[in-house]
Structures are given as C-alpha cells and as structure tokens.
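#random but structural
TW: two for the price of one
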Amino acid sequence: MIPMSPRQQDNPELVVIGGGVGGLVTASVAGQLGVRTTLIERGPKLGGDCLHTGCVPSKTLIHSARVASLMRRAGEFGLPAADPRVDLGAVMDRVRSVIDSIQVHDDPERFRGYGVEVIFGQARFTAPRELMVEDRRITGRRFVIATGSRPAIPAIPGLDEAGYLTSDSLWTQRSLPRRLAVLGGGPIGLELGQALARLGSQVTILEAAARLLPGEDPDTGEALKAILDREGLEIRLGAQVTGVSGQGAVKRLDYVQDACSRTLEVDAILVATGRRPNVEDLGLEAAGVDFGARGIRVDRRLRSSAKHIYACGDCCDTPYPFTHAAEYEAGIVITNAVFRLPRKADYRVLPRVIYCDPELARVGLNEREAREQGLEVEVLRFPFSQVDRALAEGETAGEAKLLVRKGRLVGAALLGPRAGELIHELALAMQAKIPVSRIAATIHAYPTLAQIHRRAVNTAYSPRLFGPATRRLVRWIQRLIP
C-alpha cells in the first residue's frame, strides 16, 4: 500500500518526483502558494541523498575526525596530547543522531500542512502527462523531476565479488578498516579518505588522472596534495586499477602506474569515482523526455525536451551537482513552472567547497579557465601564514588566490581554514559587481580570518602606493604644506 495524504489529488497542477532538496523546495513553495501539488518519493523517508548519505553524514564524520586530529596535535597548543582510541560505531551513532535531528524538518506531515500530497513509491511515466505510482494513476499539468544521483561504480574485474563501500553504504560500518583503498581522488574520495585516515585507517588513494583535482588550477591541487601527504595519506596519481581479487578479509588491487604493474593489499575498498543520475525506471521515453549519461537534458529554464516537464539537481545535465545548486535550480523551476515567468539559470557566481581540512573553496573562474576565455587577469595571492588569526589558531596552511579583471573579481580560490565560510564575501562581491577596491576599503574586524581578503587585494595597491611616483608626491607635499 502507498501511504496517502488525507486528500488525494489524481489531477494535481504540479507533480514533483523526488524528495531531496530540489524536490522539497519546489513542493513546499508551490504548496504554500496554493498550487495543487503532489510529491512522490521512492524511498522510505524524505530528505534525499544530502541528508541520509551525503552532505550531512559526511560533514559530521569529518568534524569528528578533525576533533581526533586536534587531540593528537594538542601539544602544539600547550596542552597534553592524546591519541584517541576511536570507536567507529560511536562516531556513526553521532552521525545518525545528527541526521535524525535534521530529519524532523523533512517530516511528511510538515509538507502536508503546506497542502502538498506526499506519496511514497516508484513513479513511472506512462504518457507525457500521466504517471503511475504502483497501481495509482496520476495525471498532472506540469512535472518536476528531482530524483538525484547515486555512486558510479567502475567496471573493474573482480570488484563486485571482492565487495566495496561507497559514500552511500559507508554509514552502516561499525569498525574501522586497518588498511583502506579509496578509488578516486575527487572531492568525495579526498574528504572521506582524510576523515578515515584521521580516525585511524591507513589510507591509500588511487587516482587515475595525472594530477589531483584536474578541474582546479595545478598549483591549487598540488598545494592540497602536499597538505594531505604531510598528514600521511598515500596518494598515487596516474593509477589505473585493472582488477580486484579477494582472499578472505584481505583484498588485492592490481593497478598500472608509470607503465608498471603494481599491487596493493587492503582490508576495505571505498569507491569514490563520481556519481550517475537516477533516470532509469522513470519511463522518460513515454514522457518524451530526452536524457543521456549525464542525466536529463534541460535548457537554461530547466525545461526538458517535453516543455511541461522540468528537472533540477543531480538528475539533470546542469554543470554543478551540489545541494545548494539544486536549491538554486528549484527556485528557477518555481519561477518558470509556477509563476510562468521566463527565468534562466546562471551559474557564473556559484561557490563550491571541498571539505577537506583545510577546506578548498572556489567561486567563478580559475586561472586556466580565464586564460582559455582570453581574459587578461591579475592574480593576487596572500598566504594564511601571514594572517594573525590563522597563526593564533595554528592553522596556517594555504592561501587566497584572487583573479581580478578591470578592477573586479572574476574568480577566487581559497585553500585554508574555514574557506567554505570565507568564500561568501567574495561571492557577494562578484554577484554585486563590487570593485575590489571596496573590499580593501571595508573595515575587517581584527583578528579574523576574513582579513585575508583585504590583505590579498592590498597586494595590488601596495606597489603603487609605495612606488617612486607616490614617494615624490609625498615629498612635494611635505615641502609645500607646513
């Protein structure tokens, strides 16, 4: 049986498929605006990947790992150091408690209170304006697909037989593997790899690319790799895994690196080789919706090839598979599908963060992208090691890197403590098209990490301020004015 709302709506004005962030934002706003809305979620709970297997559990785990790291580093702060004996089960219990606390906000009754009918079950289109949820037929005026994504599993011989973990299945683990191989050096692999290493696993990351984070500038990726190397993570670049075999609790990975065949024995494997959109079993062909390996193809108004069907979040081929991108896209969908106004998505000022420690945050273009677009940019840098608050906290690794064109930011990257929080001042400056001179003129409280923005911008003005021309002007003023 499908749990139904008290009021069934077989002919809603808006049907939302998927109870993650994109779907929940769309459904809640539409319901509160008085649109007859039906929300369908195939899983047992609302909240989506972000709440249950993605952002929330991973950041909770990362924080526990940071606390363990700080306990070992306590001697740096004049305190007795301690090497904690980590009980992964207890850590996972805290992860679950945080999820449960947030789950309250995604209670189906809350959305029913907005006038949204909530259904749990698999939705499948049978026609462009009709779908089935088990044995119930629903005909709608407009539809929003927000079904998210799942881990992409590479076709490596023996991997299935040997067994592996993913960012979805990790959260049921109660014991820490002594030796862990992480397949993939992207954001998920780096975040979880560092966290598990800090909790006590011996972690080896196997990345097929020749350098870490190929989407970032080489200097940024190399700086983060150097930090992780110092922590004891083994990162092997250009490593192509060719096969996996399991012998009891021990798993053997065969890989090729630098044209040499190598092997690695571990106790567990974490696959973090990207994600793939959840578009199967939706009957998209019957709905006339075009899709491919990257998901549902949408225009800038987030309309699919069937213009009454929209898509947002990880299930469509938009450029950024982030929770905050899905929330932003839900706003685009609401404007188009509910208010019927032609609003287009614009991703030029969308911050993104890799939650390693220190964090790597970026907004806008990187240096390579700017050069490829033929933009002449001034690169401004300032290290956290010269920021007093970073020195006080013992977190001095990394730097700010700002790209300036005609006096305004076109991109920025921050590698350093709490970079994910600091990036938003720069994002706002880009969104509002504020000249960087205004950042330099803005008073920043002392001592704060945010001073790095002002200090980085000032590197552009210092040579001119203290240059020969200014010095001659000052001497002239001192002679003429008593």
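TW: number two ↓
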Amino acid sequence: MAAAASSTDRPGALEITRKLAEICGPPFARFAGPADEVAGRTARWVAVPGGPHAAAEVLRLAAAHDLTVVPRGAGTKIDWGAAPAQVDIMLDTGRLAGVWHEPQGSSVAEIGAGTPLRAVQATLERTGRRLPVDAPSPGATLGGVLAADEAGPLRHRHGSPCAQLVGVRYLDADGELVSVGLPGTAQFGQAAPSARPGGSPAAGAGGGAAPGGASAVLGGAEVPGLDVARLLCGSQGGLGVLVSATMRVQAVPAGRVWVSRPVWTPLEVHDLVRAVLAARLDPAAVELDLPVPVSLPRRRIPASHPSVAGRPDHPAVTGRPARPAAAGSLVVLLEGGPADVAERADRLTALLGPEAVVNHAAPEWWGRYPFAPGDTALRIEVPINDLHAAVYALRDAAGTPVPVRGSAGIGAVHAALPGSLPPERVASILAAVRGVLLARQGRCVVVSAPAPVRRAVDLWGELPILPRLRNAKAHLDPHHRLAPGRLPGGL
C-alpha cells in the first residue's frame, strides 16, 4: 500500500488521526498500541465509529488515502487464520451495538455487529426468546462470530449462526452501506440507499436483487448459492464490514437435559452416534470430548480392604483386570417440553446402556475448545461415518493421543497440537491427516497457531471454493483494502 502515512511518526499520520477523531469523536480515535494487533500484525490507528454512517466515513477516508482496514469485535478470535499483509486502521465495532427491531413475538431480530452474544441472549430472554447460537468464545460479538463462522454445540440441530441469517447490513470497501437478504426474505431483498450523501442506491453484490433472492453477481455472471450475506461469513472482514445482522430467534426451551455416557475408543463413538441418530430422538446437540488420558499410578488393593468388601465384581476379588478408565465422554443434549424431554431421555438412556447418566446441567467442558493459547488449533470436518478414521489418523500422525472435542453428530470437531511442536512436525502431521481426509470428502483447517507454524504451513489445505473467493474479492474489494491476506490464497 502506498500510504499517506506509512508510519505513525510522519506528518501525514497526525492528519489521519485528526480526521478519524472528527468522524468518531476524540475519545474514539487514536494511534494503535502494542495490544492492537491481528495475528501478530500491529495496527497503526484504532477507530471506534459511533454508527454505520461514521463507519462508512472511516472506510472512505481509508480509500482516499489508500489505507487498509481490518474490523475487530471483542478480539476473541483476532489471532485466528492468516496474518493480514498490513493493518493501517483497526475498525472497532464496539459502538455498532444493540438489539433492534425485535417486536414482541417476532421470529427475527436485527442485532448490531458489535453486540456481545451474551448481551443479545440476555435481552431476548426477557421476552422468553433466544438465538439458537452458542459460540464457544467467551465475550464474542455477533459480528465476530459471523466473521469467523464460529459455531457451538447447537449447530447440530440449528446449523451454524451463518445458516440462521435472514439479512445483513454491511459496508463495502468504498464505504457504501448495503442491505441484502437471503432467499425468502422480501423485506431485505433490495439494496439500501447509499450511505454516501447524494449517492444512488448501492450497486454492491446484493444491489437491485429481486425480492425473494439475493445472490452475488461476480464478473457479470451469477454464482449460484453464493449469497452476499453468506460470503461475509467466515471472511474475517476481508469482503466487507458487517454493521448488523437479522437473525432468526426462537422460544427458550422449557426443558433441557444432558445425557452422558463414557466412551473408550473413537470406533465406539462412531457406533454410538449412529445409534443415537437412527433412534430419531431429535437431539439438539451430540458432543464428544476425548481428552488426553492422564496415567496415574495405582496401588494394589487387597480383597479384604473395606473399600471392596461386599463387591464380588471388583478386580481385587475376581482377579480379572479392571476395565480401563474411560477415554472420554459422549453427551447428548435434549430440548423441548419437560414431559417430552423426560420421555426421550428415558429412551436414550435405554439405548446407551447402564453407564448413561441424565444431568440437568452441562458438563464442565461443554461448548469449550480443547486448545489453549499457544497451541496449534485444528478444525476437522468429515462425514460422521468417517469421524473415527480422522481421529485415528490424527493420533497416528502425532504419535500420541491428541485432545479432540466437538460435534460428533455432524462430524465437526476441534483438536489441539502442542505449541512446542516444530513447524515441520506440524506440517507432516497435517499432510498425513489431510491425506486420509481427502479420500473421505473431509478437510482439516488450522484455526490458529504460533507465528512460526502459521508462516510455515498451509492453513487451509485443498479448498475447492478458492476460485469463487477470488472472484468475490475482485468484485467486492478490488483494491484489497479490507483485511488483505486474511482470506485463503493470500486474498
């Protein structure tokens, strides 16, 4: 980028700061600090616009001075994915917040992109409703969840948050405010008037779409199924700056129970998941936790010891070896009316056997990632019949058990490799796992990783959608001002 201010100590930098302060207000525009970075790339300025029109002005300022812009929500996933090539202005969406246009009894709600998901749920709960969204990142904003295409256990029944979109408002790279909707949402089928004073209706990818359908027109050709709203999902801010999203909402379920069962092997998990899905119990979630086993020394207990007296089945009495400690847990969430949930829970426990337990609270690990800061975090997606093969392949490639957790009912799980592994070792593990997954129509993506690993490995692997992403970037951000390099292929 040829910048008017290639560093913050140039005279032009002060002028940019002054203009950002005029747009956002003096307390909401500043030079960036050490904490204002994206995957290790430090920003130059931070701007916190007070509304959509102010955010549009920030983007126009960036366009006029050939500066890059990277959106930031709560920053819970700011280190996910590839580092951008350059971060001039970090556009903080914290003031683009609120739950709007959600009349009593409505099945949809428009929500500001900078609204924390917890605040959304608390607001909706006052009217007995919720978003069926449970992204694992604590403190995440709705915009951040959509930008990272992040989903939690409830995706089993309701799909990802991106699948629940009804419409979006976003800013394109030139600062045009565009409203688009998904098929079947007439009120969002047309582009909103341009945010630029005196401008004509925005001619963005959704502009002029007929009510009832909005698809991207890239290079003069319509790309089937590539809605603008869904293009923004998972784009890490590289295709547009999300202002608000209109989401489907539903009544809070009156009854919820978690039925858990210990599991010993990935193959056993495969058989149990198939049985649960075949039983038509309508689970809200089917989650798996396979932590790394901790081996503890065991001392021999004599048969006369009080702890085993009267237990003829104990190994100290029978002389037979004890069944090993469970390798993990399979937990099924049931939601609905209390009586219906109780009946389904009875059927499920009968199916899972005597080791199944019904709980009225989620296990401690529920809705959490298995990786910690500094780990190499992987996301594996594979048809459910091949999930066990993927887990075994990961163990074989790593040469040791690897923590795995996620939605076994749809074949989408996360895994963690120690951050201490050398980049070349991580690359060899990825190659082996991807080789197994390729034949099974699965994929393995590096969600986050230490900087040396991120630089050395292919984060995404084979990506059939890459040509369409390239067309979308060329159409929506031809000058590569929005989060350049964050998308696959260096886009």
